[in-house]
Amino acid sequence: DAKKLVRSPSGLRMVPEHRAARSPFGLDEPPWVPDKECPRCMQCDTKFDFITRKHHCRRCGKCFCDKCCSKKVPLPRMCFVDPVRQCAECALVSQKETEFYDKQLKVLMNGATFFVTLGTSDKSELMVCRLSNNQRYLVLDGDSHYEIEIVQISTVQILTEGFTPGGGNTRAIGMILQYKVPGSEEVTQMKFIAGEDFSCNKKLSAAWLAAMHKATKLLYESRDQ
What we know:
Keywords: Metal-binding, Zinc, Zinc-finger. This protein is of the alpha+beta class. Helix content is about 20%, strand content about 35%.
C-alpha cells in the first residue's frame, strides 16, 4: 500500500495515501486545546508567561508546561516518524503500546497453528492463522482459505485453562471470534484451539493468543475514539 509523508503541527507522519488503507489499530491526531483557552498548565496549574511556555501533548492535545510535557516517545498509532512530545500520562500509555508494535505485532504476522471450527460445525480444520502485513486482515490457511477483515470483528474471547479456586497461572489455549460478513448483518463465529499434536507449537500458539488479546484492546480503543 502506497504511503505519503505529511507534516502536521505535531510532526512528520508517514500515512497511507488512502484513508481506507489505514491500520485498524490507528488513532487520529487530536485537536489541540487553543492557546487562549489554557492560561495555566492543565496538570500542575502553573501559570504560563514569557518564561514558562506552553506545550501540547501530541496524543491528547492538552496544554502543559515543559516540566509536565517533556518526554518524547514513539507514537506509532498516529504514524509519527519520530518520537513526539507527550504528557506523562500519555507517555506511559504510548510506551506500553510500543511493546505491541515492536514484538507482539510481529508475532501476529508470523502466525500460529490452530484447529479452527466454523459456526456450529462439529468438524475442525488445522489452519495457520496470521495477521496480514497491512494489519487489515486475519488470514487463515489450510485446506480452506479465509480472510477476515479486522474492522469486521465484533468480539474476541480468549479461552484459558489451568485456573484453580485457590489461584494459579492460566494458559491461553484458544479463542472464540465473532465477525460480521461484509455486506450483511450476519455474524459468523469461529473457534480456535491450539493443537495437541507435535506439529503444533503450544508455546507459540499461547504467545499468538496473548498478542491477539492486546490487538483486540487496541482495536476497541480505535473504535471508541
